[in-house]
């Protein structure tokens, strides 16, 4: 599944940028109850500011009101795209990729090819974003 069709299925809570075809992107899977996911929020906000040419979005499979409650407590979530998945698309994509744990990020190049996946706090995550933003 290409990133454009993935992102189009999610319901935005915070929208700071638009995904455009030909744009590198990062999909971060998270949950509000997940302490490592909450710990990654300031880092994601920083990366979003640092690499504006990369579409960065965090997506949760939880109810919108649950994510809104966390957003109210963590204002950094207003600095990058945050969405909820009401269609089951995120879970199906994660399963297809053999991923069961969160937080987990997928980075796509400008052609929509998956070029990296792993923990959003890994050094390689930011290295890939830096390379793709050039």
Spatial gap, N to C terminus: 24 Å
Spatial shape: globular
Provide the helix percentage: 25-40%
The fraction of residues in strands falls at 15-25%
Helical segment count:
5
Radius of gyration, whole Å: 13 Å
Annotated CATH homologous superfamily: Glutaredoxin
CATH class categorisation: Alpha Beta
> If classified by CATH, what would the architecture be?
3-Layer(aba) Sandwich
Structural class: alpha/beta
Strand order of the largest sheet: 1-4-3-2-5-6
Listing every helix as H and every strand as E from the N terminus to the C terminus, the arrangement reads HEEHEHEHEEH
Number of domains: 1
The residue ranges in which pLDDT falls below 50 over 5 or more consecutive positions are none
What CATH calls the topology is Glutaredoxin
What is the residue-averaged pLDDT?
Answer: 95
Q: Report the major sheet.
A: 6 strands, mixed
What is the number of strand segments?
6
Which labels suit this protein?
Thioredoxin_domain, 22% strand, alpha/beta, AhpC/TSA, six-stranded mixed β-sheet, 6 strands, antioxidant activity, Putative, globular, 5 helices, Glutaredoxin, oxidoreductase activity, 134 residues
Helices, strands, pairings?
Layout: H1 3-8, E1 11-14, E2 25-30, H2 35-50, E3 55-60, H3 64-73, E4 81-84, H4 89-96, E5 104-108, E6 114-118, H5 123-132
Parallel strand pairs: 2-3, 3-4
Antiparallel strand pairs: 1-4, 2-5, 5-6
């Amino acid at each position: 599944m290409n990133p454009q069709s993935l992102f189009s299925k999610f319901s935005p809570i915070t929208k700071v940028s638009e995904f455009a075809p030909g744009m590198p992107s990062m999909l971060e899977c998270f949950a509000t109850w997940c302490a490592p996911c909450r710990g990654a929020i300031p880092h994601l906000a920083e990366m979003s500011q640092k690499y504006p040419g990369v579409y960065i979005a965090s997506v949760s499979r939880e109810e919108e009101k649950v994510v809104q409650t966390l957003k109210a407590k963590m204002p950094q979530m207003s600095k990058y795209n945050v969405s909820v998945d009401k269609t089951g698309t995120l879970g199906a994509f994660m399963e297809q990729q053999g991923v069961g744990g969160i937080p987990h990020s997928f980075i796509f190049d400008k052609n929509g090819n998956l070029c990296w996946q792993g923990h959003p706090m890994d050094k390689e995550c930011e290295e890939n974003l830096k390379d793709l933003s050039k």
